Amino acid sequence: MSPQHQAFLKALSQRITTERLVTDPLRTLAYGTDASFYRLVPQIVVLARDEAEVSAVLALAHAHQVAVTFRAAGTSLSGQAVSDSVLVVIGEGWTGIEILDGGERIRLQPGVIGQHANDALRHLGRKIGPDPASIATARIGGMAANNSSGMCCGTAQNGYHTLAALRVMLRDGQVLDTSDAISVAAFRRSHAGLLHGLSALSDRIRSQPELEARVRRKYRLKNTTGYGINALIDFIDPVDMLAHLMIGSEGTLGFISSITYRTVADHAHKASCLVLFDELEDCCRAVTALKDGGAVDAVELVDRRSILAVQGKKGLPGFLYGEPAPQAAALLIETRGADAAELAARCAAIGATLAACRPAADSGFSTDAAVCETYWAVRKGLFPAVGAQRAVGTTCVIEDVAFPVELLAEGVLRLTALFDKHGYDEALIFGHALEGNLHFVFAPGFDSPAEVQRYSDFMDEVSTLVAVEFGGSLKAEHGTGRNVAPFVKLEWGDEAYAVMCEIKRLFDPEGLLNPDVIISSDAQIHLQDLKRMPAADALVDRCIECGFCEPACPSNGLSLTPRQRIVLWRRIQQLRRDGSDAALLAQLEADYQWAGLDTCAATGMCATRCPVGINTGDLVRQLRGEARHPGVASTVEAHLGAVLGTARAGLGVLKLARGVLGPDTATALNRAVHRVIPVLPVAPAATPGAASALPAAPAAPAGGSAESSVVYFSSCVNRVFAESPQGGDNLAESTFSLFAKAGLTPIYPPDCDGLCCGQPFESKGASQAAERALRRTGEALLAASDGGRIPVYLDNAPCALRLVEAQRAGQLDARLKLHDATSFMADVVAPRLHITPQLQQLAVHIPCSTSKIGSAAKLVALARRCAEEVTVPDIACCGFAGDKGFTLPELNANSLKRLAPALPAGCGTGVSCSRTCQIGLSGHSGLPYRSLEALLDDCATPSDSAR
């Protein structure tokens, strides 16, 4: 660390707790990683929580002359969110959402994930305008700083055009809140010179008609190259100019601490279709016709290579499989309507337009939400999915240009010719066709000077082609970053570029805010610090570090995310191979044990968010290796019934201790002992009492048919923990009551008290014990189900997933009809019942296993039949992870820190279908989380058919 940074750090540590000042090599690399193809490792990472801390950072940066870069989610693609100086990470503490004017406006802090903003608006039929493909991960601060747009918003609904107000802190610590008249008046007095400078620049552009016309013309296209100097001629008041200049300024002019958007309509009636053309020119002519027709809301172009890249995806029309024509391209189209009639009319109008354009095949419009989501999920994941197919060791680069839409076909053909000329045979093109906005992806290797030179030559030619020959945008929506900073003058010309340089000087005369981003004097900055992705493990080598996985990870904010685990494992493997820094390697390996391995829940939810399905948990389990004491695991598996009896007895002791000492004292004592003896589990505050013995299975009714029978598999966890907090009951009681109402008769498998799916052993690396447990359970279920004739009910979601996946892998008899509890209740039991809502408000938690098994929608649908209003907080994984809630309670606490604030006022009950999840959820929400079976039992009576 440089002396300047050391002095800065020492001073800052007087203002910000040292736990949030990161300097160790493991975490600086982890936090310094973004989705771009650049790698800079910050000397200091500041996890800032509020404006006061950001103000302190800026004041001390000025005093010590150190550069500062702001970063939110790190999904940036052009190198604007990385730094080798001070990186300020905005996340926790910046997640405020305030809905205004009945949803017409929404005020957001910069740490809010874009999708969470839309979730808050959905019930009002509104959404924010920007809709980048990364919206489920990207945060509002980054979206505003990059002027993100996306697939459906075009230019009219981007951040610039939907801005209502913002709160910004300049490099001198001064805050301007444009929604506050007092703040604006004070700013006019304190920063008159800055505002006068902006007015002068506005006059400068207006005095040159040719320059003014050029600015207006270029912003008819999507354009994020350079500063948004259209703000200087779109507004008269310099305060408005300043506010809109901040949009797309990439942290080079100030820090946006709050933004208010005007929202846009989110029509419930939507339809999508896929259309294939054998000729690219026909496809692009269709785009022009569709734009002129005005009935479409989004049109995405996918070229031939992109079609080939997605052919492994399920749910696409049959005509997209097989070998496309040499010049083939496809369009993904969406249209929306205020009601079904309007939607139908729009679909018909688009169909007529398409028919005249001679498509090779057309899926027709679908209004099925699942079908449409499949189409759009494929498009959203196209960049990472393509990147995953690159050769190991190469880097994935995505460029982002815009042509005038009438020149789209020629632009695609010219770009393709450049790929061929420079040998990028893997390159493909897709993008927002209505705006002439194309993304192209290719995979250069930056491991030799020759490869870097090839990339440089290619970029030079692309820049001339797009910016000079076609008058287009070199960066349509991904931001200038470091990637296009050397080409801003080429695109804009000397006079416009001079205006941009003056803007930077007015706001940041010392050049300390995100230097070399947007404005740079280094003509080679785009060729420096290029990211290398050395081989690490076949399980994760396809990762392009996009970060889409991070919101689903329960250890995000506690230790590392899946992306960070992969980044660090790549670095460790590289150091092991080259032997360049033994001391660094030793430190990274030591720190990685807890941050990378011990704190990973390994539930695989990262794979559900990853466009190519990378499960970082698989890598973690592999690195954890075999259990240290496999003999103990085998003994436990062989005597499971007795072990579970001991566990129930332990819960009785816990109940007694809480009664004698009081719950708080007992919990504090438990945690103190755990710190001394880590193998002793921590019992969360919501740990229930011991379950009673399984109830006797009722006799089959006289005259009953074999079709009314169901094998009931009670999981270990439900044989230990009671349904009620006090204990003394069993989940099977509620389930059997429901079965009786539905006319079903449960059957236990033989030795049901000693059976286990094997998941507890598998998670600890005790593979032999896990395999024996799985085998014994499979044999018992096959016997009880009469060779697979009778369905099997699996009462705990994680166990259900374990058994279903084992059957898919050929480890269980294929004849077994395995049903997770949610699916069986939805498909078999609920149709035989009258279900009457008994609750006003209900919170639903979807366990990881329920999501992965595909029953999430069924769980929510059942919940909606039991309550008037249902809330589903975006908690992808609660972090309890089997037994980690007992052995590493901070993981559960970290994952559920957003739960309580996400619950609506008046909500008094939650529901889930994993017993351990329910324990953590109850403890961290203050609500009792019940089983699905108990909830349904309270709301259900037999239907006539069941009787």
Could you please describe the fold and organization of this structure?
- The chain is of the alpha/beta class and 947 residues long.
- The chain has five domains: 1-266 and 479-523, Uridine Diphospho-n-acetylenolpyruvylglucosamine Reductase, domain 3; 270-475, Vanillyl-alcohol Oxidase, Chain A, domain 3, CATH 3.40.462.10; 536-601, no CATH class; 640-827, no CATH class; 833-942, Rossmann fold (3-Layer(aba) Sandwich).
- It contains 39 helices and 28 strands.
- The chain has a seven-stranded antiparallel β-sheet with strand order 15-12-14-13-17-18-16. Strands 5-6-10-8-9 form a five-stranded antiparallel β-sheet.
- Strand 26 (910-912), helix 38 (915-925) and strand 27 (929-931) form a beta-alpha-beta unit.
- Helix 11 packs antiparallel against helix 16 (408-422), helix 16 runs antiparallel to helix 17 and helix 28 packs across helix 39.
- The termini are far apart.
- The model has no long low-confidence stretch (mean pLDDT 92).
Provide a quick synopsis of the model.
With 947 residues, the protein is of the alpha/beta class.
Topology:
Blueprint: H1 3-12, E1 21-22, H2 25-31, E2 44-47, H3 51-64, E3 68-71, E4 86-89, E5 97-100, E6 105-108, H4 114-121, E7 126-127, H5 140-145, E8 163-169, E9 175-177, H6 181-190, H7 192-206, H8 209-218, H9 231-234, H10 238-246, E10 255-262, E11 264-265, E12 269-277, H11 280-293, E13 298-303, H12 304-309, E14 329-337, H13 340-355, E15 361-362, H14 369-380, H15 382-387, E16 397-402, H16 408-422, E17 428-432, E18 437-442, H17 449-469, H18 488-492, H19 494-507, H20 562-578, H21 582-598, H22 605-609, H23 616-624, H24 630-638, H25 640-661, H26 663-676, E19 709-713, H27 716-720, H28 731-741, E20 745-747, H29 759-763, H30 767-784, E21 792-794, H31 797-808, E22 818-820, H32 821-829, E23 833-835, E24 839-844, H33 848-853, H34 856-864, E25 867-871, H35 884-887, H36 889-895, H37 899-902, E26 910-912, H38 915-925, E27 929-931, H39 932-939, E28 940-942
